Amino acid sequence: MKIEIPRYIEVFGAAQINEVQRVYELDSGVTSEVPAENVGTVRDIGKDVMNDIEQRMAIVVSTKNEKLRLLDGVMSGIPHDCLIIVVSNSTRKPIDRYKNEMELVKQFNKFVQRKVIMIHQRDPGLAKALREVGYTDILQGRYVRNGKGEGALVGLVLAKLAKKDYVGFVDADNFIPGAVHEYVKNFNSGFSMASSPYSMVRISWLYKPTVIETGFYFSRWGRINEYTNKYLNRLISSHSGFGTEIIKTGNSGEYAMSMKLAELLAFSSGSSVDPYTMLNLLEAFGPSNPINNKEVREKGVQIYQIETRNPHIHVDKGDEHLANMLLSSIGIIYHSRICSDALRKVMIDELIASGLIKKGVTPPNPPTMRPTKNLNFKTLQEFLEINAKTLVTMGEASTQNQAPS
Ligand code: GDP
Ligand code: CO
């Protein structure tokens, strides 16, 4: 992949946020070479480098009642050497959609023979294993809570058990397998540029139309993203004293992290997880927080935002879904401990003025789940293997390898 070098970097405590980068060439050949006159402007990431990262990467596919054909397409787009982890929260009655998903994945794997792990989010055995290691943050009664953020966290835990160095997240409702393929390549190119072991790559879409019966519909998603980005940027400027527009991927649902960073971050419930992976990074590594980890202090945390060439076309879930997404995204920022009262007031006034929330309504405060770094993964693995009846591993993807310490 041939990609622009970021011209501008915003520094916020230990976090280094790179400006959005444009892709020049999706495939730039076998080896990494840049002609001398372009050295300062372009980065060339050859297939050798890409492939090395793919072998060390798990891609978590979150799905809830998506069409099997879409899930199949998404899996087909993920480069072969990545481990696929499907975390499903699909309904099991009256039709057992998870069973259908398992059959689809097995059938898929008969032809491609790769490493796949899948699990159902509401498997009581999964909840039992997490309770055993004290991770009640994610639980509600006998089960893991519903929500995309909870599913992502389950995927992260499985990626850690499979000893992966990188973990990426993609949605299952994507109509374009080639776009999914590109996201993984974008992730890889970000990681290959990072000099710190703590790095995150977020996908920036040029446009995100949804498919409806009569054609494409340019949904209000753009508006949600506009607000989320605006408020995340204001958070930064309220600490730095300088206005900024650096964050362009606040609501991106596709992002990847080095495992070393992922296990230091908290996750949040439902769709607020998408902005929260960015927000929590600002909370944890920003200027107002003492950073205990020496390596993080010295090397910093690097964030890349990469603009895709493919459009992001996914299932239209309707206006109510978008309204909930907006509220939970705004809510997670509004309730952040690094959000000032002045910014809270601005947020509420603007949202009321634009008709997005009603007067007197406080945005929701989605639950968060603490970082997973210090969980006892050995015990978690033992309990998972005994209790999680929906856990399926294919290829050499077994979580039965020795657990990471
Ligand atoms: P949007 O694309 O951000 O508007 O939100 P979607 O509703 O499309 O959700 C993103 C992805 O997460 C889709 O692939 C959903 O099927 C999936 N998803 C939604 N809720 C859950 C959940 O509770 N658990 C899991 N595992 N996945 C979910
Ligand atoms: Co979607």
Write up this protein.
- This protein is an alpha/beta fold and 405 residues long.
- The protein has one domain: Spore Coat Polysaccharide Biosynthesis Protein SpsA, Chain A (Alpha-Beta Complex), CATH 3.90.550.10.
- The protein contains 13 helices and 19 strands.
- The strands form 4 sheets. Strands 1, 2, 3, 4, 5, 6, 7, 10, 11, 14, 16 and 19 form a 12-stranded mixed sheet that branches. Strands 13-12-17 form a 3-stranded mixed sheet, with no helix packed on it.
- The longest helix has 20 residues.
- It is globular.
- The chain starts with a strand and ends in an 11-residue tail after the last strand.
- It binds guanosine-5'-diphosphate (GDP) and cobalt (II) ion (CO).
- The site of guanosine-5'-diphosphate has 20 residues, from strand 5, strand 6 and helix 5.
How does the SSE layout of this entry go?
Elements: E1 2-4, E2 9-12, E3 15-25, E4 42-44, H1 47-55, E5 57-63, H2 68-77, E6 83-88, H3 97-112, E7 116-120, H4 124-132, E8 139-140, E9 143-144, H5 148-161, E10 166-171, H6 177-193, E11 199-204, E12 210-212, E13 215-217, H7 221-240, E14 255-258, H8 259-262, E15 267-268, H9 273-285, H10 294-299, E16 301-307, E17 314-315, H11 319-334, H12 341-353, E18 368-369, H13 377-387, E19 392-394
Parallel strand pairs: 3-16, 5-6, 5-10, 6-7, 11-16, 12-17
Antiparallel strand pairs: 1-3, 1-4, 2-3, 7-19, 8-9, 10-14, 11-14, 12-13, 15-18
Helix pairs in contact: 1-6, 2-6, 4-13, 7-11
The protein binds guanosine-5'-diphosphate and cobalt (II) ion.
